[in-house]
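Reference record
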Amino acid sequence: MLTPVKLRLISLLAATALAVAACDSSTGGAGSVGGDSTGAGASSGANSSSGSSTDVPSNSPAPTATAAPTTGGAPTGTSPSTSASGGPQGTPITTKTVHTPDGAYRVAIWAQVNNRSCAGHAYGKAVIAFLKKHPCGRLRRILGTTTVDGRPVAIAESATSFSSSGGDPYQITGDFTLLEQRDGTGSINDLLREGHRIPQGPSSIPAKEVFKVLSQDNVVTIWDAWYLDGPTASNDPALLKMINSVFLLL
C-alpha cells in the first residue's frame, strides 16, 4: 500500500522527467543567437526570399576584393585598367605612321595603359586633390619612340578627359592645364614611373627633356619627349614641333 509520502515522491519524479524532456526538445531553435532574435529574419530586401531569410552573424568579416594584376610590370590594386607592353625581344605592341602637315612620324608604341580613373595614378598633393574633387572620365597613357630629324626620340604621353559630373568640363580642363603647368604641383604618372620600359631607354624621364601640356575641348594631354642619343634642351624646337603636330593624331 502506497503511503501519501510515497505518492508525493512519485509525482515529483514524474514532473522532473517531463521538464527535462521539454528542455531537450527546444535546443537549436532557428533565428536565435544568444537568446535574441536576429534582425535579418525580420527585414525585407535582398536577403529575403519567399518569406524566409538567411541569418548572417553580425561579426562575419566583409568580403575583400582582390585586384587582378596588369601586364607589363605596372602596379596593381589602384583602379580597373587594361594594359599592353612590348615583347621580350624588343618588339613594340604596334607601330603607326602619323601623317601631319609638317611631315610623317613613324611611332613605335611599347606600352599602353587605359584606366577609368586618374587620382590613383598621380603624384603631388595639389594634383591628387584636384583629381579627387574632379574625377576624370578616362586615362590613356602610352610609351613610344620615334625619329625626329634623324635622331631617336622617346615619348611619354598621358591623355585624360573630364565629364560634366564634376562641373563645367571646359572650366575643369582649363584649370587642370594651368595646374599641370605650375612647378611643384605634381602630375599624372608616366608609364616609366609604373614600371614599363622601352628598349635601351632610361628607367625614368631625364631631368633635361621637353614638357608640354595641351588641351582640346575637355581633354588634357601631357607630353614628355627627349632624345635617346644625347642631351635634350627644354625648348628644343624640333621636339616641340613634333608634339604640336601629333598630339591629336597619336
Notes: The longest helix spans residues 4-24. The helical segments are 4-24, 125-133, 169-181, 237-246.
